[in-house]
Design a protein that fits this description.
alpha/beta, 10 helices, about 325 residues, eight-stranded mixed beta sheet, Rossmann fold, binds alpha-L-rhamnopyranose
């Protein structure tokens, strides 16, 4: 009985404080946590590919731990205009935060800025948005080490000599373009002077288009020694083409691939845990909404089972180092 009275009283005090807080302008409707927690909209580049599905599984796991709700939806092909519709929907439906992997950093910027102006917290991850249009960018490993590593992987396979090409995703994707920039910078170093980058092609993270681009590369460059495909869709398609054309011994393939897809053909590819990636992004969104994390360099957050992460230059939070898969270890990874 006594307990009930205390509880009722506490409820009244909480209600009064809440009302006072709101009338005093503390908090705002967008960042106000409801009984169901924060509503977070996760927009991938597009739905229907394993990596983004894995991101959503991780984000939903984090949301469960944090008491939030994550909605996962987006276009069905790599389309920035398609993403804008989902951004607008998130705003109209009163979501507190948007987590987005942008297909084109600039094309989504105006819609993201409109969302932010309405109080929605914008977090980019994977494919960054224009820095002025997002609060924090959650990066997998840092872009430089991803770019450098792939040049080293293919270089070590071809004896650091000969022609190489890059099979990328969308020509507008900031993650792909930044990695390619670092690949080019790495290739300019003395160690790699025997390697020539002959062509960069784009398969738009579409299986058929990527396979077509890979076939065209093989035809146009009969002396091609290696291909880097920094996209899970592209590298899987490229591996299939090489196998079908019995060219696995002749052209070495590396890139960013899922162990589950690359197991039969792997020599050396890399990635990171895509589930942890989505998990971290939701922890970032939640802590920003809670006012516990700002985007200032050195700010830290505790991200559940991942432990502590901090904000680095460019308002960027990094997930982890790349995981390198080889024949020797790939069976230990199940994603
Ligand atoms: C593809 C997408 C994604 C990238 C991964 C490695 O699935 O292009 O943006 O991070 O590959």
């Amino acid at each position: 009985m006594k307990h009930k009275k205390v509880a009722a009283l506490t409820g009244l005090v909480v209600a009064a404080v809440t009302v006072l807080g709101l009338t005093a302008g503390i908090g705002n409707a967008r960042t106000a946590k409801t009984a169901a927690g924060y509503k977070v909209y996760l927009i991938p580049k597009f739905i229907g590919v394993p990596v983004f599905t894995q991101n959503s599984i991780g984000a939903k796991l984090a949301a469960k731990e944090l008491g939030d709700t994550v909605t996962y939806n987006g276009p069905t092909t790599a389309s920035a205009t398609g993403q804008v519709q989902f951004i607008n929907t998130a705003v109209q439906q009163g979501y507190n935060a948007i987590i987005i992997s942008a297909d084109d950093p600039n094309a989504v910027a105006p819609a993201l800025k409109r969302a932010a102006a309405k109080g929605v917290k914008v977090i980019s991850y994977d494919g960054d948005a224009a820095p002025s249009a997002r609060y924090i960018f959650v990066s997998p490993p840092d872009a430089k080490s991803i770019g450098q590593a792939q040049v080293e992987w293919v270089g070590s396979e071809i004896g650091y000599k000969g022609q190489i090409a890059i099979l990328s995703a969308a020509a507008t994707a900031a993650n792909q373009n930044t990695w390619i920039r670092y690949m080019k910078a790495t290739l300019a170093q003395p160690k790699y002077k025997g390697m020539q980058l002959v062509k960069v092609v784009y398969g738009n993270d579409d299986d058929a288009q990527s396979a077509q681009q890979m076939q065209a590369l093989l035809q146009a460059y009969p002396n091609l020694k290696g291909v880097i495909s920094p996209t899970t869709v592209g590298v899987a398609a490229a591996a299939r083409v090489l196998t079908q054309q019995h060219q696995c011994g002749k052209v070495q393939l590396t890139g960013l691939g899922l162990p589950s897809q690359m197991r039969p053909s792997v020599k050396k590819v890399g990635l990171w845990s895509e589930t942890d990636f989505g998990y971290l992004a939701e922890y970032v969104a939640h802590n920003v909404l809670d006012g516990k994390l700002t985007n200032a360099t050195g700010q830290t957050l505790r991200a559940g089972h991942l432990g502590v992460r901090s904000v680095g230059p460019g308002h960027t939070i990094i997930l982890s180092k790349p995981i390198v898969f080889t024949k020797a270890n790939i069976d230990n990874y199940h994603f």
